[in-house]
Fold these 3 entries.
Entry 1:
Amino acid sequence: MKKKWIYFLLLVALGIPTAYGSLATDPAALMKSSTPTFSTSITFGSTTYDFEGYVDYAVYAPGAYSGLLTLPTDEYVYAYQLFNSSNSDVSMDSLTIGLSPGITASNAFSDPSIGTTGGAMSAGAGFTMSQSVMYMFFQPVTAGSKSTALVFTSEYGPQMGGAVVSGGISGGAVISLPTPSVPEPATIALLGFGAAALLRRKRKA
């Protein structure tokens, strides 16, 4: 582990790119980005501002994470990266990922080694009382710039859920992103049916 971090710091010092490829096309990912874009308006006082951008994401199956952070190998890894449009009048201040009721997540960090490198680091990450993971930026993601990859882990697999990109204290954009969730009852039934069919085949063989 120590050698790994020394290698990473040397690459940064020498200015050599450390990216493993964008999250949208990372071959190690279980679920890759369909590049959810957003375009909305934020009104502050009597002035209306344009807020545009997109979120790149990838979800990694347990043990398949390609970044340099040491994370649990028995949990899924969720990674997101914010891109603010050059047409935006508003900086990105935070990303909040919603969690389904009863779902847990942990190990929330920024990882500058995956996705598109050179973005703004998250100043802090934490888990709110309202079942969500929130990333705040000390230096906002300004128009035409991006964040680092924002990651967390969970024992629960992905489904598409709700997230909010904040564009200042006065508003933001609600978008759909993969979030940890338990399978729907219909999905559980289908999985059970599939397992039963496999057992029947084995017995016949």
Note: Residues 125 and 135 are 4 Å apart (CA to CA).
Entry 2:
Amino acid sequence: MRAVIQRVSSASVKVDGRITGEIQQGLLLLVGIEDSDAKEDLEWLSGKVVNLRIFNDEEGVMNKCVKDIEGGILVVSQFTLHAATKKGNRPSYIRASKPEIAVPLYEQFKQQLATDLGKEIQAGIFGADMKVALLNDGPVTIIIDTKNRE
């Protein structure tokens, strides 16, 4: 799984002009799933996301996680995170999972996040044409790949 994690002051996602997910302070997660992803990947990524200390403490040091600030999480599926751009100018998405594999993992990931965070997770709609709006705070943007756990 790949995730682009953005610390936000606010974020929302719309499908067909209707808001399907919205948060104030917290994290916007863009998530891509590939065929080799498994429950172990989503559990590890969820734990990493909810405990990532990227929010400022009282001294202005990034020392708090989204749980500490009681922030929200908005998850948006994004198969383009697995784009291969080595050859030519048109990206290949061959590594991105097909819906029959990706949807169950995406749903499990959202459930794991809700469990780890202790509150409901906001989300887009898998496979839909989504319009994402965000106010990046910092900006703070971090990329995590469960296949490259640095």
Note: The longest strand covers residues 130-145.
Entry 3:
Amino acid sequence: MSPYVVRSPWPTAVAAQPRFGRDQALAIVHEFVKNENLRRHMYACEAAMKVYALKFGGDTEKWGIVGLLHDFDWEIHPSLEEHPTKGQAILESRGVPKEIRQAILAHAPHTGVVAESMMEKCIFAVDELTGMIVACALVTPDKKLANVTIESIKKKLKQKSFAGNVSRDDITKGVALLGLSEDEHFQIVLTAMQSIHEQLGL
């Protein structure tokens, strides 16, 4: 090195990593999720998560991405032994931040990851409820979310034979995690879903 070259005392700036955003998340959904009903479930969770981000002071895009990606690997890992654990490597390779990946693990108690942050608690709380609300809409005369009410949701929840694949226990636990009344939680999620009813086909 030439003795006349003066080194800068300041460290060389490292290029900032590009922010992982909704467009990248949506591309992952389109790549791995072919079933339209599953996509709609993820859109519903995204909408509910965005509303809860506003309520609890979170980042709406980040919280929405958790909802959008939480079931992205179900079609390639359709068992509790694999979903969503095996999908983590894919998400990491695509640049999905650890905080989002952690929340996706937390939405599924069988992974052993306990929901601790409010974002993690919210994705657990909205997951099963969105499925119940869709089921309630599908039995209305014109199959529209506009005709679903808090009362109709609560009535159907008591009918064990209705939407039997929806975990009532998880819905109850979700309400407790958020510290809200059942009515408030149901209304928040229902209103969020109604705001994107065209995207949901309901």
Note: The longest helix spans residues 36-56.
